[in-house]
Amino acid sequence: MQKFTFDRRITGQFTDQQNLLAYDQEELLPFIGHVFSKDNFRKQITEKSGNYPLENRSTLVNVLKKNYDELDENERTNANLELLRLPDTFTVTTGHQLSLFTGPIFFIYKILHVVRMCEGLKIEYPENNFVPVFWMASEDHDFEEIKSVDVFGKTLSWETEQKGAVGRFSIEGLGALTEDLSDFFHQGSADVTDILTNYNGRNLAEATRKLVHRLFAKYGLIVVDGDDNELKSMFIPIVEKELKERFSFSAVNAANDHIINAGFKVQVNPREVNLFYLEDQMRERILHVDEGFFVEGKGHLDLEEILRDLKASPEKFSPNVILRPVYQETVLPNLCYVGGVGELSYWLQLKGVFDAAGIVFPLIQARTSMIWIDPTLSRKIAKADLALEDLFKDITFVKNNYLLEHASEDVDFSALEKQMNDLCLSLTDKIISIDPGMDRLAEAEVVKLKKQLDAIKDKMIRSVKQQHENAMRSIDQVYDKLFPHGGMQERVLNIFSMTPDGQIGERIEHIYSCIDPFDPDLVIIRE
Predict the structure, then answer these.
(1) How far apart (Å, rounded) are the C-alpha atoms in residues 169 and 389?
(2) Partners of 526 in beta bridges
(3) Same structural domain, 391 and 352
């Protein structure tokens, strides 16, 4: 197994704004708290220490202990739970939707990135403790985004009529998909069987927590589900402020103006009230209307009614994408949020919301992006005589370059083109010498001749390509695997597809060993 790194900026897979998030946050400083760096963790520790009440820490640990009582015990996660009680312990967090069977492989990359970062920070700041956290987006309601996963070229889809927050979905019907996934591993794999056995529970949130715990407990990862009454109680003052003042709407709009004026793009647009009303089978927007508030299925509520409801049942109030980061940073003693470069773009819109809420804005960092080249694909790359640098070039250019190298005599038209240019010059001179007024005719005839030659060249190149059909097919297969639908492999590939031998734990350990959380470059692993 070989590891290579490439500057993201030469790959053509990331926008300028995304590259700034990965490499040069100085240009983004008006929209964040501090630039991500090892040194700035000291500033973040100081700021968060004065902004995270001891009672929040106590509530967080009590909730987590109850959740972890239902999971298999693990010495390292138990130790991290106890460390969270201490005022010198902080978290590094990533989060994601409750994707089916972990969904795309960057789900795994994200988690291992925060694990590795906590290990690195402990070396840098030995007087502090650092705990990796995975925040489950259990209150998300976009089921279409998580209902399917591609495994070994087959799409597994979970069909259900349930509505509302996906974390509350009963997992009825998932058993058949679990069996379908197991069938890919014909010889039987104890690792796969054990992992899928852990994918169960009262609802999707519990099943996901158990699955993630099974995969990452050995690394000390702590899984947090924000859909909890006690955790939501910490957030009551900010929800109340939102209902009374609708402060996030004005804060994000002001940020959006600055972002656009700076030449960047905004990722999300705020609503007047950035909250949902949450019950089983229901997650509806809280709309501000003249007489107070309106919730589909609940009707009209005046301010006093909705505030009474908030204080009695805070779990019914769910932050949307604008306020969820603020909720997360209220609940956790967090220093840094790690996400995809697209995901982090909307964090650039939120600094004003954090300031208005009185919550410290965390450091933000782009997660590791990785391309995995398995042995079969590695052989195809070798067969097509491709260098790794070639993978980031346009496929047509790569194919033509291959032909120039391997069929240069057949596709070398330089002599013919010189003869054509000489002929065109002679023809033009002859026509104009006979009648200077026929210069336009001469120009038109030259264009026709060159078009005819280009058509002949195209036909000859197609013929040569057919003669090298196997190599052309290999190049297509390489690009299709590494950049499916023109995008990054990590957004389609699943951990089970990466592990045909069923050794999931071993594969995760390989990925873990390849991640350097302080190196923003794209990683290529070649087997």
Answers:
(1) 45
(2) 2, 373
(3) no
